[in-house]
Amino acid sequence: MNLELIWDNLPQLLKAFLVTLELSAVSIAGSTAIGLVVGALRTSRVPVVSQLARAYVEIFRGSPLPITLLFVYFGAALYLGYSVELFVASAVGLSIYHGAYVAEIFRSGIEAVPTGQREAAQTLGLSPMQTFRYVVLPQTRRIVFPPLIGQYISLIKDTSIAFVIGMVELMKAGQAIVDRTAEPVPVYLTIAALYFVICYPLSLWVRRNERKIVPA
Amino acid sequence: MTATTAKEQSIASSIQLRAVTKAFGSVQVLKNIDLDVASGKVVVLIGASGSGKSTVLRIMSGLETADSGEVVVGDVPMHDPKRAPEIRGHVGMVFQQFNLFPHLNALGNVTLALRKSLKMSKAEAREVGLRCLERVGMQDRCANYPSQLSGGQQQRVAIARALAVNPRIMFFDEATSALDPELVGEVTSVMRSLAADGMTMVVVTHEMGFAHRTADRVVFMDDGVIAEQGSPEQVLKDPQHPRTQQFLARVLEA
């Protein structure tokens, strides 16, 4: 394997790696915010609200991520009349797509909290928002934590799909090097290793905490 | 207590139900219920499961809405959907399954509403919370989480939590039914001391001993109607209605 080739292109790869990290962090925050709101609305007792939330989930779970990204990037230019920065379009696309999955994770967590908890909070005079924030949400933590981290891992790997709109992240930067050097194997292996370096610690973290969550 | 505060209290903590009905789907759970609870009185609802007694309690506490009829709790007309939420935080509800918040310790359970709903400072909430836990003999366990407490202790914390917001009326929905028999006493003794302090209470229970010793009035419900009511002596020792006689015979046999 041509290690010199990797060494020579390392600055470029690390720069792209940082973009991938940044895009992942922003999209994780975005998808969590969307997922929390949509997941909560999904459990609403107002039928219109829960149906709208459901429609959101079904639409984005039922369409491929590249299409979502293309719609956000070119759709903004075509219909809103202004161009969005690549990074912003990528982050928004990833957030709304993964937000649909995160919403389902939060929904299952919220639904697992017994209704008696809400009734107790209500008779004590807590508002619906306070009940959600201080009674329901903290109890979903142990239920949503493992699947949520799993979703974040998928999201991190999915940032590579942002290349379809021309975003230069790790994957795209690697392809450029391959095009230039005609050495796909060492380059792609290095890229895979860099994704692994982010994702594996998250897996380990879940496993450690899952063990902790199991009641003694 | 002066005459005016006594009068204020009688306005603020009495309950009137007039011609109340409630159906769940095709099942008519309550058929035309009339019930009055005067301020400072303890009314015990008894009856077989499915007779509607818990539903009466849940309607009075605002957890369910009546289909028709008038429900006035304190000075809140609960049949008016706009005004019904006013009752929140002014009545205490104690549940069969305790419903303590498992992620908070005993003191956290008692102070949550004080902090978030009544906007007390941390120190003030802590002081009120500890006082309420002391009231039920649980101040020593204030740092324990619900899972570290026995059923009886959990229910006492739940009572302290309900008392903390200073309710005008307390509702008990089979508060001792989920407890091991030897733990029932610690909860009923707290309930008795509340009654002795003049708290208005509506209690759904199967504890005939509690009903007999503590109730001002016993109400027997059967199939969505009030079949019989009167003093504990009357209803429990000399029931007139055949269904009451049957029910008591079965309960006392067990």
Description:
- The complex is a heterodimer of chains A (216) and B (254).
- Helices cover 83% and strands 0% of the residues of chain A.
- Chain A has a single domain (3-213), classed as MetI-like fold, CATH 1.10.3720.10.
- By secondary structure, chain A is mostly helical.
- Chain B is built from nine helices and ten strands.
- In chain B, strand 7, helix 6 and strand 8 (200-204) form a beta-alpha-beta unit.
- In chain B, helix 3 packs parallel to helix 5 (151-164) and helix 4 (122-135) packs across helix 5 (151-164).
- Chain B is globular.
- The relative contact order of chain B is 0.16.
- Residues 1-11 of chain B have low confidence and may be disordered.
- At the A-B interface, helix 5 and helix 6 of A face strand 6, helix 3 and helix 5 of B.
Topology:
The complex is a heterodimer of chains A (216) and B (254).
Chain A lengths: L2 H40 L4 H15 L3 H16 L5 H26 L3 H9 L4 H31 L11 H12 L2 H30 L3
Helix pairs in contact in A: 1-2, 1-4, 1-7, 1-8, 2-4, 3-4, 4-6, 5-6, 6-8, 7-8
Chain B lengths: L2 H10 L2 E10 L2 E11 L4 E5 L6 H8 L7 E6 L2 E2 L13 E4 L11 H11 L5 H14 L15 H14 L4 E5 L10 H13 L3 E5 L3 H7 L2 E6 L2 E6 L1 H6 L4 H12 L1
Parallel strand pairs in B: 3-8, 3-9, 6-7, 7-8
Antiparallel strand pairs in B: 1-2, 1-4, 4-5, 9-10
Helix pairs in contact in B: 3-4, 3-5, 4-5, 5-6
